[in-house]
Amino acid sequence: MKLVLKGGRIIDPSQQLDEIGDVLVEDGRIVAVVNVEKKADKTTTVIDASGLVVAPGLVDMHVHLREPGLEAKEDIASGTRAAAAGGYTTVCPMPNTNPIIDNAILVAGMKEKAREEGVVNIQIIGALSKGQQGKELAEIGDMLANGAVALSDDGHYVESAYILKTGLEYAGTFGGLIISHAEEESLAGDGFMHEGAVSAMLGLRGRPAVAEDIAVARDCLLAEYTGGAIHIAHVSSAGAVECIRQAKQRGVKVTAEVTPHHLTLTDKAVIGFNTATKVNPPLRSEEHVEALLAGLKDGTLDAIATDHAPHAFEEKDMEFRYAPSGFAGLETALGAILTGLYHTKKLTLSEVIDKMATTPARILGLEAGTLKMGAPADIVLIDTEQEWTVDSKNFYTRGKCTPYEGKKLRGKAVATIVGGRIVMQGGEVKE
Ligand code: NCD
After folding, report:
1. For residue 214, what is the domain's CATH number?
2. Based on the domain organization, do 19 and 121 belong to the same domain?
3. Are residues 118 and 93 in the same domain?
4. What's the CA gap between 133 and 17, in Å, rounded?
């Protein structure tokens, strides 16, 4: 099957490409970019991409698809449809499910289910410790051998430095990457939002930024000591950014991601006690947001990941203190980043694509995030100018809860192509 995307602005950071032209896809792979010589024949599907950006499909290295066991919040079918709607062609679910994905059989089972029920590619992240309890390492080698792309106790800080140290040493021998949820528990554990003026005003116990700074500092030191590779999830504090910057300068194998919500919202959003603003780590104050933007721009923060963390509506529909942390992110991420960072000239389009597709794929060693010849035809078409209003009723995710509810955004994925198949067009997921 042949597919031609005609006359779009092709942006591919993996080839430093930013040119108007065509993309030709055959049998699920990219066969030509920009100067497409081959003639279209009767079997060729042609998509007019003029006025649109044609880019590698987005890669989200941090989502929660809630399968197995927590399907009232999300499942593979609903979560990957949300991904397709948001322009993502690959998502990497975290293992904090029920049961926790902490052995090779569960990894293999998830991969099978992903192939059957997912409309985009799924790459599995296994747990670092058994049951994510932080007490004993999980079957790291077996999980990596069976296709896990990284290991993480996300949702929990690995409190034991010993477990993280041995995990880094052990995973390192298999070339495995550990992803850290870095918030020191004794400081952050009982808090509901960022500790500062707003938490004082609202009378809510805070999760101080220093809880994250301490955790990131320790993690970087352990990565440096062991020579292992660590990736810091959802960086949200200025201190963490500075710590990662310095560690990178020393040659530590550390990479980091930041979420659209930490880049575009502050703790002021919590005023009014809307539980759609409750998340870990919490939305922080302006100076932290500034530091995140600076870190993203100078390469300290490598990737943008959503931390798509859907919960059932009735779970979020309660008093702030009791509501679970997290909210849906896959269907608002691109719009929020284009609105908050691209249209305000903080990032170029090429930087946006790099942070949302090319670099996350590189960090995880995935065959994705590129439009190079021969690569799988995972592609997103973006209308950078389309204005739309966020309405969670229209979401494909079950997690109908977002801090962007009712907000006007500018920029949207208008088609998502996975392995040459058009899975979303005009906002409608086709499968
Ligand atoms: C995550 C979830 O719901 O799985 N929630 C969140 O606020 N990010 C877990 C977590 O990282 O705490």
Report:
1. 3.20.20.140
2. no
3. yes
4. 45
Q: Residue 24 sits in a domain of what CATH number?
A: 2.30.40.10
Q: Whose CA is nearest to atom 4 of ligand 1?
A: 309
356 and 333 Cβ atoms separated by less than 8 Å: yes
Token digits of residue 56: 């590698």
Q: pLDDT grade, residue 33 (50/70/90)?
A: confident
pTM: 0.98
Q: Report the atom number in ligand 1 closest to the C-alpha of 94.
A: 4
| Ligand 1 pocket mutation, candidates 279, 315, 398, criterion most atoms within 8 A of CB | 279
Section 263-278 average pLDDT: 98
d(CA 206, CA 196): 7
Query: How remote is the CA of residue 142 from the centroid of ligand 1, in Å?
Result: 26
Find, among 425, 417, 333, 383, the residue nearest to 8 by Cα. 383
- DSSP state at residue 195: -
Residue with tokens 């721009």, as numbered in its chain = 297
Residues contacting residue 416 through CB under 8 Å, at least 6 positions apart = 57, 84, 85, 87, 88, 89, 120, 379, 380, 381, 422, 423, 424, 425
Structure tokens at 145: 């051998």
Mean pLDDT score, 275-288:
98
Torsion of CA 68, 72, 77, 78, to 10 degrees: -140
Counts for the chain of helices (H) and strands (E), in that order: 14, 20
Quote the DSSP letter at residue 197. H
In contact, 253 and 177? CB cutoff 8 Å? no
% of the chain surpassing 70 pLDDT: 99
Domain count of the chain? 2
Rounded-to-integer distance, Cα 250 and Cα 365, Å: 23
Rounded CA separation 181/154 (Å): 5
pLDDT in tens, 98-129: 999 999 999 999 999 999 999 999 999 999 99
Name, in order, each residue with C-beta under 8 angstroms of 418's C-beta and a sequence gap of 6 or more. 57, 84, 89, 119, 120, 121, 377, 378
Strand partners, 421: 418
Q: Looking at 364, 399, 418, which one is the last position of a domain? A: 364
Ligand 1 contact, 303 CB (< 6 A):
no
How far, in Å, is the centroid of ligand 1 from the Cα of 279? 7
Please report which confidence band the pLDDT of residue 42 belongs to, taking 50, 70 and 90 as the band edges.
confident
Pocket probe for ligand 1: among 325, 327, 401, the residue whose CB has the most ligand atoms within 8 Å is: 325
- Range(s) of the domain holding residue 188: 57-364
